[in-house]
Known about the structure:
This protein has a domain at 12-214: Immunoglobulin-like, CATH 2.60.40.1190. Helices cover 2% and strands 56% of the residues. The protein has a 24-stranded antiparallel barrel. Strands 1, 3, 6, 7, 8, 9, 12, 13 and 14 form a 9-stranded mixed beta sheet that branches. The two termini are 37 Å apart.
Amino acid sequence: MIGTPAPAQDRTARAIRIDTPPRIDGVLDEPFWADIPPVTGFKQRDPVDGAPASERTEVRIAYDEDALYFGFMFFDSEPDRIRRDVLHRGGRIDKDDRVIIGLDTYFDRRNGYIFEVGAPGTQDDALFADESLDRPDWNWDGVFTTETTVNEDGWVLEMEIPFTTIRFADVEEPLMGIAFQRSIRRKNETVIWPHIGQEYRGNIAQSSQYATLTGLKDVRRGHRLEVKPYANLGAQALNGQVGFERESKAGLDLKYGLTSNLTLDLTWNTDFAQVETDNVQINLTRFDLFFPEKREFFLERAGLFEFGTTQETEVFFSRRIGLEDDILGGGRLTGQAGPISVGALALRTESRVPDVDAGAWNSVVRLQANLRERTTMGVIGTSLDAGGSSSRTAGADFVTRFWSSSQFRMWGARVWDSEDGGAEEGNAAARAELELQNERYGLRVQRTHVGKAFDPALGFVRRRDQDQWNVRTALTPRFEASDWARSSWIQLNGERILGTDGELQSRRAGSSLGFVFESGETVAFDWTSRFERLHGPASISGRLLSPGDYRFTSFALGARTNDSRVLSGTVFGSTGSFWGGDRSEVRGGISLKTGPHLTIGGEVSRNEISLPVADGDFATTLIGLNIEGAVSRKLFAGALIQWDNLSKELQANIRVDWIHTPGSDLFLVLDTGYITDDTLDPRLDPWTRRTAVAKLTWLKAF
């Protein structure tokens, strides 16, 4: 039985030292828990910012020399209605009742760890940088232990985070920033301690607003070695190949703490057999599609290496490494050196033509200095050295965050290729952005320049040869006195793009109106007007467009339900002019949760397009089916099945994951592609690929 709650604490939480660690079983029956004054006084962020939470929360914090321990009591007036349906580690835990712990372990008010736990005890974790959840590293897998129980008072969480899982300052009595955020899903309610209001858009990543965790002393830290060998066995048959080719492979990942603040990762014979397949995308634009990185080695601490504009002009884009050429090995150094964040990466890839060259070195160095609270300056350098030639990129960036969620950000970079000696014109890019943002309004002004020859070898550039102005303004009213309406948004935006020669290329204006109901449902309406000038021929889905001026107007309407429901869905439709013709699009999705062991989701999208060119009338269809099954929190599986009418390929990717010990997995992966075209020559093999792989990893810490 837990003792009487202590008065609500303000911005300080204290960890109490214990002699004997608790048994992590989801029951706070160890005597010391009753003696620890709890953190209380949680306040709402939603629906009524700053109001008392509708359900009480108590958090008790303990530690010994090896770990931090948390005892949570989530009181609930209707414990039978607690949402607890997600068992996948790293799955959509936000559909359940859950808690997130934010830890700023270096106490730099800028970066931190996130530990997320759902009501069934399901885990996820992440690293975030610069108080941003735009691209958190959810693929970082920390080792920690959780167990939960549900009783007549609510649900209980007992949790252990080993000090070897996190990195923190090498001082006798380290201070850390800390915050807790609880979601009560049936009420669509979010509560937080300490209170971080809606004016801070970063939510739980707003580490400058964290409370201070005190009381830590004489904890075990220092060098730590993690060794993670793997072995896999598989068979593969590609199109036109007779029989299956069997392959076995072994490799090793090693993680070593050089200091309490710097970590060295080494990889040898790297393998990504367990990585999920890409979602199919149909390209109806003039530019390259962006496919996100999914490989664990690159996703860990990915935020530290970010530079440029996400999905538009990225100086370092890790998918350029190792997708076509196998990675032989390499290393990565990450961490802190005083006020400076350090990231360095060097990987060796094998040659596509072994008789011509010996392979390539792919290298990145990223440094960020914390000038003062919420202000950062950094530099980056990338290099690709292959076959006697090289391509290097260097850049610098600066960001300062002020008021609540406002910021000024700028970056610039330049490319040097050995072939041109760095003399080619147009090999630079830069961007400046001012954003004024709080819970009621937003204003963003951006200025971007990308030269014709700006092509970083390890980066991603969606559109070159542009000088762009972009302005967006928004009002985001909240209806906290309403029992059926929660919030709304009204947004206006405009964009003008000139070529670097001063010629107009594109112009865009648009507006968006959206409404969020108290129940969690959302509706939105969009209007867009575009102008495009083609100075030369361009291709849309293989159909050639003539040079000239094109004007577009389109309207769109969309809606989605609260995705924590047993049955949830989305629907979207748009219509308008398109490159001198017309385009109509309809897409929708549905998800059914049958309970904690099975979730089935499906998506369909359809485009009807008419262009004023030969063979200009066509349609695109994309169908996807996503099945998630789980036996327990340690054994679960997922299947992604996709088909589109352009490639006419039916693709299936099935992955089973058994976490046999914390941090160690056994993966079983099946990946297939089958051409469904009736006109295919029957003498040809309709199978594009058939792959089956079993991969075993084992984490050993010293």
